[in-house]
């Protein structure tokens, strides 16, 4: 059959071991149909790419596309480079355009600021900056919030409010007064108050998803897994696909527990609803479990203790959100429903608990269910080989394998020798694990996979802001890093039947780059630019 489109004079990196390289790519009916020997017909369009580099569309196994799109469209956004005064200035400018009691919602403040914000005077300064309006600002992990007096009032949080399960309402160590810093589940109280007064319409949710996907396209991403969805997000994805406007393969993760988003429903009611939102390009195929929090606020679960502090003493390890039997029960419930599971684990105790639970579910006969450990920046040496043996994918996050704000914050709470041993990617690959790249955008400020790819190879900050390297022995090769963000990501989220490599029969999802990364200095790979992004044989992005 003659091709609809043939790209010639190209360097085609297929990420398919059976044919790694080609000089042409043929597309018919939105699928890859051939390479250098493709059949031409009278209606075949032929494009000479002038030697450009072509590869599969990138796969992001962990992001929050709708929340990122919503933030870009409707919220105050700033980066972790802002100090305390800079955040107040940003709030002050944003608040000027709001009504008298409209919410200031946004983020993200750096984890390293948590001590500076944990003061009554800091909350009062935030009150002044917002002119009395309610404020809710997330930190760079999106697990914790800093809010002002008005927000606390609307959430019903007073000096007498006890800490909720799985959360901490931080008080000023000098006065005992509320500071507005809310850790983990404590922030859900404010999140629900926010949602009560600033509900988005269905059209706005669809705009947020569409906008998030447009940004992903600009970075060459054509498939992704949203790591925690609400019914509003599911509805938006189904609405877009039914209208022919969902130009990506999307896998959704259904929340089993929810310590940070304030979504409803979650758990079994959400599982029971989810299949009505399945469509051609959208697969609600995973559940998501938060098994612990994040190290900077000592909410991650570790096998060995944190550094001593006044609040926790010298023997504090952190805790998991549920006991082993409950975790194994949820994984089995998901498997029985035909669903796979992504489990958020940042401490090595949470990773071990997940591997133990997966072993139990595998032994019960669920051989094909997919399991992902999300983040898993700390893995005990005894557990490395268990990933491959149990068929558990490592969903790894770029900002955790190079020096940066979050690693700096982690180094403040863990002994130096442990804090320096994050993200053992080389060891995971060498012991047979499937390693898949996920941006965790908007926790990462950008979903640019090339920054992560360069960092995987160098273990250094690709932006050059932070010096040094982070456990350089765990570096991997450029080819392995690119595969982590293409075929391995597709395998981890269960869409390798349609995407992840340029293989005949798969969807024609590919990108044209402004350089050949294999011929570029590794120090410049993060600057790789996407010239065109194609999904199912249709161009969905072109650099202006």
Could you describe the 3D structure shown?
With 544 residues, this protein is an alpha/beta fold. The chain contains 18 helices and 24 strands. The strands form four sheets. An eight-stranded parallel sheet has the order 8-15-16-17-18-19-20-21, sandwiched between helices. A hairpin with a 2-residue loop joins strand 23 and strand 24. The chain starts with a strand and ends with a strand. The model has no long low-confidence stretch (mean pLDDT 96).
Task: Outline the secondary-structure elements.
Elements lengths: L4 E4 L2 E3 L7 E2 L2 E4 L2 E4 L10 E4 L4 E4 L1 E6 L1 H10 L1 E2 L6 H12 L8 E6 L4 H4 L2 H11 L4 E5 L4 E4 L1 H7 L11 E5 L6 E7 L1 H12 L4 H17 L2 E9 L1 H12 L6 E7 L12 H7 L7 E9 L33 H13 L3 E6 L2 H16 L7 E5 L8 H7 L1 E5 L8 H7 L4 H4 L5 H6 L4 E3 L11 H10 L19 H7 L2 H7 L16 E4 L16 E6 L2 E5 L2
Summarize the structure.
The chain is of the alpha/beta class. The chain is built from 18 helices and 24 strands. It is 31% helix and 22% strand.
User: What is the share of helical residues?
Assistant: 25-40%
Report the span from N to C terminus: 34 Å
The strand line-up of the biggest sheet is 8-15-16-17-18-19-20-21
Rg, rounded, reads: 23 Å
Low-confidence stretches: none
Number of strands: 24
How many H/I helices? Answer: 18
Average the pLDDT over all residues and give the rounded result.
Answer: 96
Shape: globular
Major sheet: 8 strands, parallel
Structural class: alpha/beta
* Share of β-strand residues: 15-25%
């Amino acid at each position: 059959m003659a091709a609809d489109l043939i790209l010639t004079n190209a360097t085609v990196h297929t990420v398919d071991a059976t044919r790694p390289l080609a000089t042409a790519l043929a597309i018919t009916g939105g699928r890859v149909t051939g390479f250098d020997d493709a059949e031409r017909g009278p209606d075949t369009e032929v494009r000479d790419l002038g030697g450009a580099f072509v590869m599969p569309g990138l796969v992001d196994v962990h992001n929050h596309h709708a929340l990122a799109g919503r933030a870009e469209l409707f919220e105050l956004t700033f980066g972790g480079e802002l100090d305390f005064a800079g955040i107040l200035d940003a709030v002050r400018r944003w608040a000027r355009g709001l009504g008298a009691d409209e919410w200031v919602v946004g983020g993200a403040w750096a984890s390293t600021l948590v001590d500076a914000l944990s003061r009554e005077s800091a909350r009062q300064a935030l009150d002044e900056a917002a002119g009395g309006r309610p404020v809710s600002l997330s930190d760079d992990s999106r697990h914790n919030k800093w809010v002002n007096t008005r927000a606390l009032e609307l959430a019903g949080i007073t000096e007498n409010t006890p800490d909720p399960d799985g959360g901490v309402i931080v008080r000023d160590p000098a006065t005992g007064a509320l500071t507005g810093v809310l850790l983990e589940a404590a922030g859900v109280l404010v999140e629900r108050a926010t949602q009560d007064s600033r509900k988005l319409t269905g059209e706005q949710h669809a705009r947020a998803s569409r906008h998030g996907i447009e940004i992903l396209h600009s970075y060459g991403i054509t498939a992704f897994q949203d790591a925690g969805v609400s019914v509003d997000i599911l509805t938006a994805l189904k609405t877009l696909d039914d209208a022919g406007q969902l130009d990506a393969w999307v896998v959704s993760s259904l929340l089993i527990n929810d310590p940070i988003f304030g979504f409803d429903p979650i758990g079994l009611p959400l599982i029971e609803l989810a299949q009505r939102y399945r469509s051609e390009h959208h697969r609600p195929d995973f559940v998501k479990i938060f098994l612990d929090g994040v190290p900077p606020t000592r909410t991650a679960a570790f096998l060995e203790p944190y550094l001593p502090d006044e609040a926790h003493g010298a023997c504090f390890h952190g805790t998991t959100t549920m006991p082993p039997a409950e975790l194994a029960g949820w994984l089995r419930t998901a498997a029985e429903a035909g669903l796979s599971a992504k489990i958020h684990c940042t401490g090595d105790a949470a990773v071990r608990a997940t591997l133990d639970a997966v072993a139990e579910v595998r032994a019960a006969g669920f051989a094909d269910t997919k399991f992902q450990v999300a983040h898993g920046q700390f893995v005990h040496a005894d557990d490395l080989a268990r990933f491959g043996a149990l068929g558990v994918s490592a969903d790894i996050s770029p900002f955790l394998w190079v020096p940066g704000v979050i690693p700096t914050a982690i180094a403040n709470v863990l002994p130096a020798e442990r804090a320096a041993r994050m993200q053992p990617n080389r060891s995971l690959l060498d012991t047979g694990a499937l390693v898949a790249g996920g941006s965790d955008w908007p926790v990462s400020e950008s979903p640019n996979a090339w920054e992560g790819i360069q960092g995987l190879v160098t273990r250094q900050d690709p932006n050059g802001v932070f010096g040094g390297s982070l456990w350089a022995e765990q570096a991997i090769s450029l080819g392995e890093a690119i595969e982590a963000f293409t075929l391995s990501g597709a395998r981890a989220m269960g869409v390798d039947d349609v995407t992840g490599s340029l293989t005949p029969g798969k969807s024609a999802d590919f990108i044209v780059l402004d350089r050949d990364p294999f011929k570029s200095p590794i120090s410049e790979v993060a600057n790789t630019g996407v010239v065109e992004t194609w999904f199912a044989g249709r161009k969905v992005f072109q650099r202006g």
